[in-house]
Amino acid sequence: MASNFVCADCGYESTKWSGKCPNCGSWSTMKESSRVLGKNYAQASVGPRRKPEKLVSIKAKTESRLNTGNKELDLVLGGGIVSGMLILIGGEPGIGKSTLMLQLAQWLGESGKKVLYCSGEESATQIHMRSRRLKVNSENILLLCSNDTEHIIAAIEEEKPALAIVDSIQSVSLSTIDSIPGSITQLKESTNRLLRCSKSLGIPIFMVGHVTKEGYVAGPKILEHMVDTVLYFEGETRNQYKILRAVKNRFGSTNEIGLFEMTNMGLMQVDNPNLIFLSNELDQIGTSIGCIIEGTRSFIVEVQSLATGSNYGTPQRVVVGLEQKKLAILLAILEKNLSLYLRSNDVFINLAGGIRSADPSLDLAIIAAIISSLKDKPLPENSVFIGEVGLNGEVRPVSQLEARVSEATKLGYSKIYVSGFARLKSSAKVQKIKDIKALYRALA
Known about the structure:
Elements: E1 2-7, E2 13-14, E3 30-35, H1 39-46, H2 71-77, E4 86-90, H3 97-110, E5 115-119, H4 124-133, E6 141-145, H5 149-159, E7 163-167, H6 184-201, E8 205-209, H7 220-226, E9 229-234, E10 241-249, E11 257-263, E12 266-269, H8 274-277, E13 287-294, E14 297-309, E15 317-320, H9 324-338, E16 345-351, H10 363-375, E17 383-385, E18 388-389, E19 395-396, H11 401-410, E20 415-419, E21 430-433, H12 436-442
Parallel strand pairs: 4-8, 4-9, 5-6, 5-7, 7-8, 15-16, 17-20, 20-21
Antiparallel strand pairs: 1-2, 1-3, 9-10, 10-11, 11-12, 13-14, 14-16, 18-19
Helix pairs in contact: 5-6
């Protein structure tokens, strides 16, 4: 074996160690890795020789997807599980990764599919106790508690299940490699062996991944490049609502999100997502309603703002669920166009419900919430704000505006503020405004 050093953040490889990654500039991320060399390993890795063929002569096969039994999970995966798919699911400790995997095994087991659940972290007794609490009792679920990657692959080849689950990839290792489980060498080689097993047998495999203190799967670039799909759990650990988002998906869109609620019976799909992001109280000061698009679905969300006098020399700018730089830009637009002096105010922005979004259509809702907080006056009842705000204060139209307006109308909102430049059918509910000066006058 030969040693080299790999950046845990960007995957950059070097033969020498350095305190700072030459590629991405991160400090203390260069980890030692062993490159597996040798004639026997090279022959095993190559496999049978294949000849190139014309792309136009290849006959495409219609991929039939395996439904998981949960519409939210199916939506995030792009319509279901594809044969030979390798999926990596990550999230903070205790957020529900192992719970979802055990429930997935139950959903498939109830439909008559054999599932192999491989655990390298917990004993059979621990998993059995959790399965009793979650009422996971299908006879089609097989359990293997092992830390050896080769034993897991041998069990997959022998049992040939419809789905295999490895919990977690950081806890399993290859005995032929002289490094500890969770090291970059073990991660690369174990994932590579599972990838070849999945593709050769056509068996989809779910791998649970640990996360770093920054919230990313450990060894992110190394594993993300190798797998077909990467799923992340979002949301606070103590919050009952969890969001499952696809960061990478070779078989579907990465724009879809799945919404789950953590109960004493495990993770349950949320039938009405709008209830998560909206409060029951109306006419709150500093609160506005916006509409975002995630994949094929639109959600009504609540933007909360608090603008108050600063007690320190430098005013605070705190954002939860949105980009920090976005708030700085919008505050500069407010000061420039409305002559509002905000340099002595602390401004706090929160996207309720634990959701995170970079949708530019929230610009108008954020500005409306800040204006409401500054005036100490609630916004008009049953109003929704949909629009992107330019640097000169103009309100610009956003994509899929018809779908957003339709969602707001369906939920009973009677005043929908949109861009005056939007090509939208005239309606008594739609209020067109061209810039934030017109918005300020409308909210007076």
